[in-house]
Every structure is written in structure tokens, then in C-alpha cells.
Amino acid sequence: MTVELIDEERYDRIMQDTVLPDLALCRHEGWMTSQSASGKGGILVGEADRDRYGSDELLHYVCYDRGEFQDRTSEPCQARCRGAVVISFGFTEFADKYQELTWYFLMEGYSVCILEHWGHGFSGRGVSDPNLVWVDHWQRYVADLAAFCSQVGRSYAGDRPLVLYAHSMGGGVGARLLERFPVMIDKAILSSPMIVPRTGLMPAVAWGAANGACLMGWSRRMAPGFGPFNPEINMDNYPGGSRARVTWARRQRRDQVRFQTSAATFGWVRESLELSRAVLRPSQCGQVESPLLVFQAQHDRFVLPSPQERFVAQVRDGGCQAELVKIPDSMHELYQMPNAVLGPYLDRIFAFLDEPCQLDEED
Q1: How far apart are CA 48 and CA 55, in angstroms?
Q2: Which of 47, 172, 295, 340 is least enclosed by beta carbons within 10 angstroms?
Q3: 130 near 258, Cβ under 8 Å?
Q4: What is the mean pLDDT of each run of 10 residues along the chain (363 residues)?
Q5: 104 CB contacts (<8 Å, ≥6 apart)?
Q6: pLDDT at site 357
Q7: pLDDT at res. 359
Q8: Which GO terms describe its molecular function (predicted)?
């Protein structure tokens, strides 16, 4: 890896003085309609036309153009544009949480495009409580991400590879995207993917309880085990994590109410488990064609490890290249680990991306 990692001892200063100004040079924001029950969605909406839509119809996204970054930054970076990375983030996350990772991708030659999933960030939510995440159907996530990749992501990639980087919930959504649209993505990285979430109960039991609550009209109510946003940090919840990185992300959440989602609804729990069922069908795993790199965190409090292993094995059985990398002494958010872990993690990602793919071979 040629990118120099941010010094954790000077993390805030480097983010404020270098990373954020660099990102501002090439940052673009936009809006897209979400997938509706009638099957309509994926329409890109200009700023002047936003008032024609209800706030719950629109999805917010942020993109960073590699060409503009190269022309304007003083930082040494790759001489050529290598494609685009679409980031599919996790439960209760938001686009700006990925500023540091975006900077590394830009330095390595990739434009970056981040869709704020339904229920997250500045996108539509369907609930008024800023703590809650609700979704009517998991297929909305997949359809929205597919429309974003095919229109926005591909426009930034051009004739270069389009890469998916997907974390946690976004990894479960990304896995289903790879099954449903096998030729859309050229390479995929799933980091701590939510193939099956941890619920404290057997998945079938958890689904039954959540479905029963939804049938009683409680789909938009907070599920047990969750609570409102807490601005304080308990590092015991981030085993092995970088205090500098965790603190930076928490400060972002404290400063912006739209970033303070913290709790699943019964509807979200039911749909996350429905998504898991769909992803793990062997016939669907066999549809994946994109070379796949999957990371598993040892101390993961949010997703189950064995379904990740099962998913990778079934993708391999279908004839697709898939590798599972286990990261010892690591927490769920691998991109927020200290430099000693983050460096090898990024090295493995960029080595994977450096391997030839079909588009490169056609140049």
C-alpha cells in the first residue's frame, strides 16, 4: 500500500487540516427517488426539482470525483483513475462516517460514491423519531442500491471497474445485489457483512417475534434491546478499536441529529432476517459472478460468523472466486481499528483490487 495512514496521535488535526479540505475539492451531493411499493424508483432528482417530491421519497448520496481530486490536491496519489468504489454502509451509519476511508480510496485512484440507505442520514425514513431505523421491505434496500450503482456508480467508473465496498447491513444488501445482478459489479469487498444479524435469539425465533409484533401494528416501534442515541463513548463496546477514530465518528453524530439513528424497529428486525433467508439460499449464492473478498471480525457484536462462512462456501461452490479473511482481535467496524490492524486490512483490499479483472484485461 502506497497511502500513508493518518497518525492516530494527530488524528483530529490531520482530518481537519488535510482530509476534509481535500474531500471538499471533489465532493458532490445528489438525490434519487427510493423504490416505492409500485416498483418505481431510481430517478435522479436535480436540486431544483426536489420540492416536487416528499421527503420520504428521496435518497441522499455523496460522491467524490477522482479526476478532480488528482487535479486539485497537493497530496501524492496514483497517476491514473482506476475506476469507482460504491460504499454500502451499515445499520445506523451515514456517508460522512467514511471520510477517512474515502480519502484512501481517492489516493489509490478510485472515485467514491456513497448512497445513504433508506432510513439513514439525510434520506427518507418513514418514521419521525430520529433514533429509529424502519424499512417496509428489505427489497427496497437492494433495488435502491442497484439503481445507484447502475446510474451514479457506473457514470463515475466509466469504462473502468466498478467496485463494491459493503459493511455490515450494507454487506447483506450488497451480497443480495451480487446475487440478483451478477454482472453489475466487477469486484466486491464485504466487510463484517450482515449475512445473519445477532438478535440474542435463534434467527427463526427472532423472526417469529418480530413478525408477530408487525402483525399487531408495531412495525415502527423500537425493538427490545435498543435505546435512544447516547452521546457518551464506552470503549468497552469497541474492543480493540482506535479511540481516535471512534471519537471522531461519535462527534459527528453528536453534532448532527440526522446521524443519530441508534435503534431498530420491529419492522427492520423482521426484514433483516428475511434478507438473510434470501441471501443464504444456495441457488442464489451460485448466481454470484463478481470476485469476492469477505472480512470477518473476531469480536463481532452485531453479526454471526458462521453464516458468513456458509455464504462464502456456497459462492465458491457456484464457481465464483471468493475468499474469507479472518481478522484476529478485531471489532465489527474494521475500518475503525488502530493503524496496526487497519494497515494490513487496507493492504489486502488494494492487493485484491490490483488483481486483473476482465475490464483491465481488455485495455
Answers
A1: 14
A2: 47
A3: yes
A4: 86 97 96 77 89 90 95 77 96 98 96 98 95 96 97 97 98 98 97 96 95 98 96 93 97 97 98 98 97 97 97 97 96 97 96 76 41
A5: 3, 346
A6: 64
A7: 45
A8: phosphatidylcholine lysophospholipase activity
- The confidence score (pLDDT) of residue 362 equals 41
**Do the strands 44-45 and 27-33 form a parallel or antiparallel pair, or are they unpaired?**
antiparallel
Closest of 184, 192, 128, 168 to residue 275, by C-alpha: 168
> Residue 38 has what pLDDT?
52
Could you tell me which CATH class the domain 8-355 is placed in?
Answer: alpha beta
Let me know the angle formed at the C-alpha of 41 by 38 and 43, rounded to the nearest 5 degrees: 145
Neighbours of 356 (CB within 10 A): 8
* Predicted local distance difference test score (pLDDT) of residue 1: 53
User: Of 263, 258, 249, nearest to 331 (Cα)?
Assistant: 249
Prediction pTM value:
0.96
Delimit the domains of the chain by residue range.
8-355
**Distance between CA atoms of 158 and 106, rounded to whole angstroms?**
16
In degrees rounded to 5, what are phi and psi of residue 39? Answer: 90, 5
d(CA 192, CA 215): 31
